[in-house]
Design goal:
The chain is mostly beta strands. It has 2 domains: about 1-165, Sandwich (Immunoglobulin-like), CATH 2.60.40.1220; about 175-320, Galactose-binding domain-like (Jelly Rolls), CATH 2.60.120. The protein contains 1 helix and 15 strands. The strands form 3 sheets. Strands 9, 10, 11, 12, 13, 14 and 15 form a 7-stranded antiparallel sheet that branches. A 4-stranded antiparallel sheet has the order 1-3-6-5, covered by helices on one side. A 4-stranded mixed sheet has the order 2-8-7-4, with no helix packed on it. β10 (about 230-240) and β11 form a beta hairpin.
């Protein structure tokens, strides 16, 4: 199933390639939907393309795309004289929202850099559904500033706050069900590493545990199902003493044949409960394929959604 989000990672000495970090962060509500066939575009370069007199003390070079990206990257050199000076002590990483690829660097003064982004045959930058971005010739020149360790440290702290990675969240791990929806942005159901998926497709019933940092006065939960929906058949809420205080059982509000292949299952309890832990149960054998969940939120009486901050599960495809 996981072919839709597989991106090749090229391990070549000429490229800045590192072990990928799979992660996500809470996202703004009402973000535009994404066409699975949409071609990613670079919307920000730092430094800007064709920039002059760039301070060589900057510790990072980064690219920001308009849609979430896969794990691959290909910062190719044009020749040895203009190759990017990578900071070998720090790995290239993606920010938590999968939009920005950051390359730690140790630039040299008075040097011209030329980088080939996604030029054949090395296509590393691609969306979560495997659509590559168009090739871009990226160049900038540093100024004659002296390398100043203190200034570099100051710039590093400032840039890190903008581009810092979150703790690793492996693709299809339970942690992918925390925070606001991101895989749900795709117009149609998507087999995507930004959702939780069980280890096997249909071998056994599965459960997903969601937790919150504080207790919420909740009237129910909203479950964002992004691939092969319909398996949800039970939701249990617990109090601070781990006692069951709400137990919904029934048919998943999102049917398996829903037109878009995804849906929001709005489960409501028969009373308001104070909880910071919920278990979802999925009858996976009766609904073929991986039944993937992107996000789960407790809903209060004002219909405000509180997104889960922690998660565990019966199994995960991340362990494959």
């Amino acid at each position: 199933m996981k072919h839709l989000c597989t991106i090749f990672i090229f391990v070549l000495s000429l490229f800045l390639i590192t072990v990928p970090v799979l992660c996500q962060e809470d996202r703004e509500k009402n973000l535009p939907e994404i066409n699975p066939k949409q071609i990613p575009k670079i919307v920000t370069m730092f430094p800007e393309n064709n920039a002059k007199n760039v301070d060589p003390n900057i510790p990072q070079v980064y690219l920001t795309f308009d849609i979430p990206m896969g794990n691959g990257r290909a910062w190719a050199q044009r020749d040895n004289n203009t190759a990017l000076d990578h900071d070998e002590k720090n790995e290239v990483f993606w920010t938590a929202d999968k939009l920005t690829c950051v390359a730690p660097v140790r630039l040299q003064p008075n040097k011209k850099y030329e980088i080939l982004l996604n030029f054949k045959p090395f296509i590393g930058f691609a969306s979560l559904t495997g659509i590559p971005s168009k090739p871009v010739f990226y160049t900038f020149e540093t100024g004659t500033n002296t390398i100043d360790p203190k200034k570099r440290e100051q710039l590093s702290k400032k840039l890190y706050e903008k581009t810092k990675p979150e703790a690793e969240k492996r693709g299809w791990s339970p942690q992918q069900a925390t925070g606001q929806p991101d895989a749900y942005r795709y117009k149609t159901g998507c087999d995507c590493q930004l959702s939780w998926a069980s280890l096997s497709e249909d071998d056994e019933t599965e459960w997903l545990e969601l937790t919150w940092d504080t207790e919420i006065e909740a009237v129910g939960v909203d479950v964002y199902e992004t691939f092969n929906p319909g398996a949800l058949n039970r939701v249990v809420a617990f109090d601070a003493n781990n006692k069951e205080i709400a137990d919904w059982k029934g048919t998943d509000p999102t049917p398996k044949d829903t037109p878009k292949g995804k849906g929001i299952s709005k489960i409501r309890f028969d009373k308001t409960v104070k909880t910071a832990k919920v278990w979802l149960y999925l009858d996976s054998p009766k609904f073929p394929g991986w039944n993937e969940i992107d996000a789960v939120g407790l809903v209060d009486s004002a219909e405000k959604i509180h997104w889960a901050t922690g998660a565990d599960a019966s199994s995960t495809y991340a362990d494959k």
